[in-house]
Amino acid sequence: MLRRLCYLWTASLLHITFSGQLHSELTGVLDDCFCDIESIDVFNNFKIYPRIQKLTERDYFRYYRVNLNRPCPFWADDSHCSIKDCQVEPCPESKIPVGIKSGNYNRYSQVANANTDIVDCEQAQDLGAINSTLSNYSKEAFEDWARHDDAQDHFCELDDETSPDADYVDLLLNPERYTGYKGPSAWRVWNSIYEENCFKPRSVYRPLNPLVPPRGGDDDGEGFYNWLEGLCLEKRVFYRLISGLHSSINIHLCAEYLLAEGWGKSLWGPNVQEFRQRFDPAETKGEGTRRLKNLYFLYLIELRALSKVAPYFDRAFVNLYTGDRQEDRATKELLLQFFNETKAFPMHFDEKSMFAGQKIEAKTLKEEFRLHFKNISRIMDCVGCSKCRLWGKLQTQGLGTALKILFSEKEIKNLPEHSPSKGFQLTRQEIVALLNGFGRLSTSIHQLHSFRALLKEKR
């Protein structure tokens, strides 16, 4: 009994310490920015989060076309999930909206309306609704767009939307949450991302992967971060984007953790202990706070991209086509309102500070940056858990689309008002990934606020 009381007392002290450390350290101005964390919290939780939640529930944004059967291009993966919730749920009885499943690979409503192929939703073991038919007109149009897209600054390895292995998945029926996917397979994915794709010279022995303990055991990470700060802005940004994405995914898994599994319905909810293991400054040797700051940094990057791409959607002929005019009109109205909120944020990241050196060197660095990130998008096909792969591909593609937008300023400014542009285009797949990916970041910051409150309650 006495031992139990001592344990509870010690645990309560740890909660108090962590809550206090988190509150005191996760504050102030972010590195490489002119924005403070408190402003982002207020802006996101009161203005952005409610809007992005409503937006991603609309039919246009809830169905994501993805190929979950692409083989890993780097190694053979034979891992299996430890629980049934790893699998992507079969297609629901309700059908995919006509405008989406009728081969809407294009960007514009008038072409979508020209194609009326309708294929009923099929049941599959691991995947969502399938549409494997395309009219000849759609195939020709898609090939034409693809040729122009090849010249774009793609930061991701995009799935072939015409592939018979590409399927529609209802994101609302397949929420991102804990699946039990961990161990050597999951570690290999993140290790490859950090060790082989972040900009790291051989002289730096400390792993970039925050899940791997530093060599020697006594390194508090300050030497590593001193080195990181010595990099050029672009390479620092790259690491912070990857770290921020990793942190966001970890928060989702902690917030939607499998607390109990019975014969009836599984119980999902926040796991405070899991959150502490990943972000407690004491348990992570101070890195937990850095990881969370990188989440805020990533949020700013994608927020800036959304504010810059608004003119693309503001044109009258661009329609978020589902086949239901009332639904389409309401969705676009919500989207434009959302863009107005993003543009109103007063402390945006200044992307012009990147790749601003000598023209040839800047171009070379930008291409290196792009290829490193594109390689990370390919690594997502090595994730051994279907649901983890789904959300990993979506969030990586969302960030890749944001980067594409940030570095297409001239093309966006020169968009024709009343006709499609071959200089800058977005596929429906990119649009859905962009908004849902940012929705995940917004949710992470909102959930972080909830974890703070839970830790405070446990004092």
Number of helices: 16
Encode the helix/strand succession as letters: HHHEHHHEHHHEEHHHHHHH
- What is the 3D form? globular
Q: Any idea what the radius of gyration is?
A: 22 Å
* Averaged pLDDT: 78
Strand content: under 5%
Give a description of the structure:
With 459 residues, this protein is mainly alpha-helical. The chain has one domain (9-458). It has helices at 2-25, 37-56, 59-62, 98-101, 109-114, 136-149, 184-197, 222-229, 233-255, 272-279, 287-314, 325-344, 359-379, 386-406, 409-413, 428-457, and strands at residues 63-67, 166-170, 257-260, 267-269. The strands form 2 sheets. A two-stranded antiparallel ribbon has the order 1-2. Strands 3-4 form a two-stranded antiparallel ribbon. Helix 9 (233-255) packs across helix 16 (428-457). The longest helix has 30 residues, at 428-457. The chain is globular. It starts with a helix and ends with a helix. Residues 1-16, 104-139 and 141-152 have low confidence and may be disordered. Belongs to the EROs family.
Please specify the SSE layout and strand pairing.
Blueprint (H helix, E strand, L loop, with lengths): L1 H24 L11 H20 L2 H4 E5 L30 H4 L7 H6 L21 H14 L16 E5 L13 H14 L24 H8 L3 H23 L1 E4 L6 E3 L2 H8 L7 H28 L10 H20 L14 H21 L6 H21 L2 H5 L14 H30 L2
Key phrases:
459 residues; mainly alpha; two-stranded antiparallel ribbon; signal; transport; FAD
Describe the structure concisely for a colleague.
The chain has 459 residues and is mostly helical. The protein is built from 16 helices and four strands.
